[in-house]
Amino acid sequence: MLNPADETFARTLAAALPEGTISPAGPAYLEEPRRRGATPAATLARPRTVDDVAAIVRACAAARVGIVPWGGGTGLVLGQVMPEGPAPLILSLERMGQIRAVHAEENVIVAEAGATLAEVQAAAMAAGRLFPLSLASEGSARIGGNLATNAGGVNVLRYGNARDLCLGVEAVLPDGSVLRGLTRLRKDNTGYDLRNLLIGSEGTLAIITAAALKLFPRPAGVGTAFFTVADPVAALDLLARAQAMTFGGVTSFELIHRQGLLFLDEVLPQVRQPFAERPEWMVLLEIGLPAGLDPGDTLATLFAEAQEAGTVGDGVIAGSLAQRDAFWALREALPEGNRRIGAISSHDISLPLSEIAGFLNDAPARIAAIAELRINCFGHLGDGNLHFNVFPPQGGQADALRHLAPAVMECVHAMVVARGGSISAEHGIGRLKVAELERLGDPAKLAAMRAIKATLDPLGIMNPGAVLRR
Amino acid sequence: MLNPADETFARTLAAALPEGTISPAGPAYLEEPRRRGATPAATLARPRTVDDVAAIVRACAAARVGIVPWGGGTGLVLGQVMPEGPAPLILSLERMGQIRAVHAEENVIVAEAGATLAEVQAAAMAAGRLFPLSLASEGSARIGGNLATNAGGVNVLRYGNARDLCLGVEAVLPDGSVLRGLTRLRKDNTGYDLRNLLIGSEGTLAIITAAALKLFPRPAGVGTAFFTVADPVAALDLLARAQAMTFGGVTSFELIHRQGLLFLDEVLPQVRQPFAERPEWMVLLEIGLPAGLDPGDTLATLFAEAQEAGTVGDGVIAGSLAQRDAFWALREALPEGNRRIGAISSHDISLPLSEIAGFLNDAPARIAAIAELRINCFGHLGDGNLHFNVFPPQGGQADALRHLAPAVMECVHAMVVARGGSISAEHGIGRLKVAELERLGDPAKLAAMRAIKATLDPLGIMNPGAVLRR
């Protein structure tokens, strides 16, 4: 049983730490972006050093107080809020935001957990390198949270998830010991892979305090285009062509459905659209190329070949950086469009690539069997990762139809599981999907996860109730 | 305490399994390539299905019999032999060697653990794809062992280790339960990363029985060359140039020292050498390029630029497939040359790239302080992974100087640790390096590893004594 982070606890802890480290947690630390859950009350800790983090964890272990780690607060699955249970300590890494080192010649950057993703990208850029993790919330999401949740985004196709970009971590374990694993090595086979166990564990096994991350050379040329396609099968054919032509140089391949474009017309009409008639499907693709190849020419050749094969319909190739930014602005406006329309139920799913067409073929009738609803499906097609979001019919209100959410979720998850897919591709489990993971997860995997949680965090103080039931 | 896999145990187990599954283990299963250790006696199990593997593990758990998993038997750190303790069961996956499926359109192959690496490569090739893991023993090493040891090899620079190439695993856990994790997904954030925990755990946490692996498009053009360089700093400069020019298209970047070439002159004179005068250092580099670029031209441009900058001296670019094969034959002859000369002590180390020059600068004097010895250092420079092997002086015998091995190892490891390196880059810990891992490993990491081992394998039956002391 956990105890609340009450005033006595807060006072004792504050006295043991540098002035200003401990305070009551204001509303900004108690809520999450979609307002689907909140922490009723909490104490806030904002340490400046890994030793202070260790001292805080030891104090929480001694007092049996739950810890909710806090990065940028941008998570979408309630991993950063604790609606039930005794008031926790919210441990924000915001004051540990230093770039500790940039080793450009090694293509390595060492950043503290509280650095925002945009700050890490900027530090890489200043050194003439690329840190490729990129997602809509990069201005506020912090790298510690990106790692804790194994964040994905728009460049996974070429560069992998947060996990694939991390060489080493420094972390505080549930007993307050410090894992000093900030290795800058590309190869290290000395024992179990704790780094990857902590990455994606959503703060339930450790507090990541810093990481050594991979950098990359910047591509000599970047090309960006919108191509319309008849359906997702055509989009996958286009992807295969583009990959073959560029030797894996496709960095982003984003699928967009007409519904998303119509939502923009409705609630964000200022967003510039590339085609006068809204296509049923289109893709935003971006390629990086070595010196000696012109990205515009390569995309034009790709378009011509794909058009001849009947794979693409229309196309626009960005002719300037400003145009490229405008293309991406449309892609990044899609989630905001969704928010303004108001979803009944949102799904972050992934499928084997060859199952996507069947899934998208089946889905509309299955959803229609529940009620007359609108579907906006978009996402990182190259990774098999779709955001499949379900909305009220034109003129309807999500709140009035929220009772349909469980049926919609069950329907979507059943289709996903039947096709060997995942019910959480990049957002994680948090507290939102704990029951679904229990219901649908592999029993041997769940048993092993519980055993690992129990042995590393026997008191259950680390992000209680996230990923696994308390 | 473990019990021996004695005749009674073998008889009972045999009766519960298909005919021919259980037999006494012949010498081929008791020894390892460098003859530095052997299993005195053992029972052999060669199951054909994952259910049989599960039955065997359950029987061993019930009888408290140790299990030594056996792939191709090519490991170099005694992970596949158990010189001490009661006779174990050797569990060979050789009869589970099927390619279960090739999903070319998804770039995925599903292979059983007993398929050799060469068989997996061939199945990928037959589907017009590339499975890039490549190492000298690929004809006999099996993919299950490659995953259990997180194998590296010559293409890690571009494609990553075995870990990076694996999407999902099927594995039997120490209680005999089956982890059914053969996902073909690029993104899946549903809980802790057990896949990566099992990969690289060297058979101490589970028996991997099958894996879903990533395939890649084959490059449109491949170029291969030997360039001479003055020293490793120049080699790293050449690597950076090559990476920038090809947008990360360098697939191999192997450093070779004159000592290795002289060893070949001595014991394998039939190996064709590219330069009449043996250079102090040279690199074998290979690049993959998209359509539209000629690899020969690109390498010629790279050479001209690097020569003008003073980075390279001489160079030879392969003009045919046969010449490319000859280049690689030299690289692959280096370990055989070492074996014939006979090393006193071999080290599979990795370093941050910017520490390599300093290490190689310091090492000769430090080794010379122990005795007059010869050093052959070669390896995967792009990954910071060096094979640093120490030999007797000209005319000397390794056996007569074996007493120097501990001092040499301690000297090398001290230099490596001081520079933030790893004492096992790609070979693993096995039983050979358990004491060194204990001595030099991060205490928090070791404690967490022991806790995980104890909770997943409370009886200690899985590869007893490997990675962690029994």
UniProtKB/TrEMBL annotation, chains A, B:
UniProt-listed Gene3D superfamilies: 3.30.465.10, 3.30.70.2190, 3.30.70.2740, Uridine Diphospho-n-acetylenolpyruvylglucosamine Reductase, domain 2, Vanillyl-alcohol Oxidase, Chain A, domain 4
Chain segments annotated as transmembrane: none
Keyword Cell inner membrane (UniProt): no
Coiled-coil portions: none
Pfam families registered for this protein in UniProt: FAD-oxidase_C, FAD_binding_4
FAD-binding PCMH-type domain: residues covered: 36-218
Entry keywords, A to Z: FAD, Flavoprotein
PANTHER family hit by this protein: BLL6224 PROTEIN, D-2-HYDROXYGLUTARATE DEHYDROGENASE, MITOCHONDRIAL
Family recorded in the similarity comment: Belongs to the FAD-binding oxidoreductase/transferase type 4 family.
Protein name: FAD-binding oxidoreductase
